[in-house]
Amino acid sequence: MGETATVIDVVDGDTVDVRLDDGSEERVRILGIDTPETTDNGGAERRAEWEGIENLSYLGRWGDRASEFAKRELTDASVELEADANEPDRGSFGRLLRYVRYSRTGSEEGEGDGENDAGDAPTVYNRVAVEEGYARVYDSGFARHDDYLERERSAREGRTRVWKRSDPAQSPEIRDREVERLFVPKAASVRTASGAVPDDRVPVLASPSATQSGGEVSYEDRIPLVAVDEAAGVAMVGGPLLDERYEEAEGFSADTSRFGNYPFATNLVGSLSEASERPERVVVDGGHGQFNAEYALSCEDMAYYLRYLEGQDAALTQQNEIGEGIDGDALIVCAPATAYTDPELSAIRSFADGGGAVLLLGHGAEGMPAEAREHLNRVAEALGSDLRLSDDEIADEESNLNDDETLPRTSNFDDSFDLFGPVTPDATPASPLTVSNVDASGGDSGTGESVSFANASDAPVDLSGWTVADEAGATYEFPEGTVVPAGATVRLLTGEGDDGMTLHWGRERNVWNDDGDTVSVYDEAGDLVVERSY
């Protein structure tokens, strides 16, 4: 049993203030869920976390509605706070992490569909918020993750509330290009159980300027950062290749969007899978302490890779309980803080034997406990692979990110491996222009509506004479001399004004339908260039 408390304030859809029975007051972060940021805190929202949703204003409105829902459910409520053995007592901001049990208005305690397999009652707010489409599941290590995720999927499939506009099939393709360079942060080298990895199993080496410190196997000028074991369906990468902390949008001071980490990783697992040449469902193991470990990743740390896969018509999902089988065609295992049980290792082995690909992501010795490396190597061993993560660190003073030698970058590839092209080469659009965002929430005046167009190419795009149209036939023509630089975005506001790269339609009424519309762009010859429905 947990401790009882009274809710004294509802901060938003996933945070409440409570007074405990001893009179002390605490802020509680409602465990295992995440509601959208409210409109007054929209700058903190991460669109990439919300599958198939592009519109930040839309998310903001649902953040407001989630807060209203929480207030209806929890204001002045007597609640029971329950901790989770898989989670710390407090989160990174000092808030208690808890399940919140309460008696729903108009229902009696215990009323509903009874307890589920996770031991949850129908009156756990965390679960109700997910089921009713106000929240997504937060991909940490909490015990009820997989049960809650099934409930989120049901809400998404039913287009319930915030998920009404979730359409991953319409997510634009991003960053799918020729792999010309990679960065492998905080890396170790890869070895075998008996020594150095043979060259014909190494698609990616560190740059010749890289150096190795420590390790059971000494490499001189050919340091393997990635190695494969095709017979076992396994690949080992020396560092957390998909870590979102190196995204500029997350505050990293260098632009890494031009690196090929995402298509390379996707090609890598596709090459190892017998089920499909390209993965349709990539599963991340999150049940072994990877979340919040500085040396490992959970799905929550890969939001931008999730968005990349959506653009490839694939999904990234987390599974915390893998002993009963793995629901995907590729599995990513990052250095685990806790060991896998024999049944879990057996499940991974059965998955690989059935044609599934296993991608092991390591970390350099600095900052990672030796036990985590041993746990990762045990997974490789259980799969019948001789690949091992070395007890060393790779640094590169010359070829790195942001003048940080612990973030080596490389183009030292073995092109005999078919891993360095775009995942969908035939899907390259005729034009580099994409409709990157639609904000249809402009009010009756129409001045706040906007559509954004991004140039994803390496060259400027001249939009002179091109037109934009909605489903109803309202048309805007780009002025002569409208040029979008490489990598830049131009925003078209429905209202009037003049402010640089923001264009203005000059209308007094809204154009874009708040409940859905289609944005079409035509070139000067009238040919359709790009179209996006929302």
Automatic annotation (TrEMBL):
Gene3D superfamilies: 2.40.50.90, Lamin Tail domain (2.60.40.1260). InterPro entries: Lamin_tail_dom, Lamin_tail_dom_sf, SNase_OB-fold_sf, Staphylococal_nuclease_OB-fold, Thermonucl_AS. Coiled coil: none annotated. GO terms for molecular function: nuclease activity; nucleic acid binding. This is Nuclease-like protein. Residues 422-450 are annotated as: Disordered. Residues 421-534 form the LTD domain. Signal peptide: none annotated. Residues 1-165 form the TNase-like domain.
